[in-house]
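Appendix B. Raw example, untouched.
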Amino acid sequence: ILKKLGIVYDDIGELDQAELLFKGALKNFQRILRKEHPVIMQLTQHLAALKFDQGQIPEAVAFAKEAQRLAKQVLTDILSFGTEHQRLAYQARSYRYDLLARVANETGYATPLANAILQNKGIVLDSLMEDYQLAGNPQIKEDVQEIKWQLMKLLMTVHQDNSKAAKARRA
């Protein structure tokens, strides 16, 4: 109930009240659910978006990064253990990359967004490879392994921090 009320207050612009409700719901759910449950991820996403709307960028960035960490684990769990119905339901209600895009837009630092995209693609490729291994198609298995190798090379590449603060430090 707290989560739904938080959404209503957020929608009508009562951000302080929405924040209290989201934080209350998060605290309650953290006591009864595992720490990487989809509901906890959603509440963290709501708090990140709310903090952006309040103009509290450092807090928004922290919540957005935590939401992405949770989303990565939830995606792994859904793809590994979920039914097709659960996978589609997750896809329909997940925020994907919009919070990290806001981080990039507000800070000029796009590395978390790029890493999230690459990591999520890697998780999906792992899932696909497992599915195709079960199907026994060696050509697809080789293709997916090659794509994973390319993805890993991209993930291991050191990204340069192009935020305004980093540019100022280098100047």
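End of appendix B.
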